């Protein structure tokens, strides 16, 4: 219980992040349309490449789900990180995308905008509504409810795939910025302790200029 409370407090501290994504979710398609299409049709492969790139291609840094899940560090990642990452992106695709997102946010002190939060929240709510409709339709046995649940499930799947594709494009663009594709100086690989996640309340602002407080 004490550990959970400590983790919750550290997550709340991350609400003070001030850096912004180079592109937000609604503009991710415009930022890199070909990559967004690739993320849509081959999401797990893109997730694999992005996680490896987020770790600066150093798989000795890899931990399952970037250290955010209870299984992290308990899956034998150190023995075969490439295989464990491949298993993660195919069996836990949603967690793999979210973990890479948290990894970048913690490393570069990036906040998620209200618009992005609304999009992500809508995706989750739609999935829950579709699940509830499916359960009710199965219990009641109504053809109308069954058709409605199928439509909602199809819609929620479309939204889920689209949002994940935009997220991964957003991550790719952010790492393009990190690696100097939008400027003259690419970033160097940070020390190992800077890659820590849940036990690091406020990460260093590596690669980003200090941001003034809001209202100044």
From TrEMBL:
<feature type="region of interest" description="Disordered">
    <location>
        <begin position="177"/>
        <end position="216"/>
    </location>
</feature>
<keyword id="KW-0472">Membrane</keyword>
<keyword id="KW-0812">Transmembrane</keyword>
<protein>
    <recommendedName>
        <fullName>PLAC8 family protein</fullName>
    </recommendedName>
</protein>
<feature type="transmembrane region" description="Helical">
    <location>
        <begin position="119"/>
        <end position="140"/>
    </location>
</feature>
<feature type="compositionally biased region" description="Low complexity">
    <location>
        <begin position="184"/>
        <end position="195"/>
    </location>
</feature>
<keyword id="KW-1133">Transmembrane helix</keyword>
């Amino acid at each position: 219980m004490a550990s959970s409370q400590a983790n919750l407090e550290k997550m709340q501290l991350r609400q003070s992040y001030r850096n912004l994504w180079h592109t937000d979710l609604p503009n991710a398609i415009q930022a890199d349309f070909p990559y967004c299409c690739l993320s849509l049709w081959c999401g797990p492969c893109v997730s694999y490449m992005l996680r490896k790139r987020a770790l600066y291609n150093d798989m000795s840094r890899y931990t399952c789900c970037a250290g955010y899940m209870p299984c992290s560090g308990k899956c034998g990642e150190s023995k075969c990180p490439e295989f464990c990452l491949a298993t993660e992106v195919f069996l836990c695709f949603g967690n793999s995308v979210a973990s890479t997102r948290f990894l970048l946010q913690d490393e570069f002190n990036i906040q998620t905008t209200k618009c992005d939060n609304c999009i992500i929240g809508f995706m989750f709510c739609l999935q829950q509504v579709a699940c509830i409709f499916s359960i009710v339709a199965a219990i009641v046995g109504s053809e109308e409810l069954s058709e409605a649940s199928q439509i909602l499930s199809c819609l929620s799947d479309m939204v889920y795939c689209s949002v994940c594709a935009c997220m991964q494009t957003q991550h790719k663009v952010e790492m393009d910025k990190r690696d100097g594709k939008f400027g003259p100086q690419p970033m160097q690989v940070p020390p190992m302790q800077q890659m820590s996640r849940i036990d690091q309340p406020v990460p260093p602002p590596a690669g980003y200029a200090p941001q003034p407080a809001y209202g100044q």
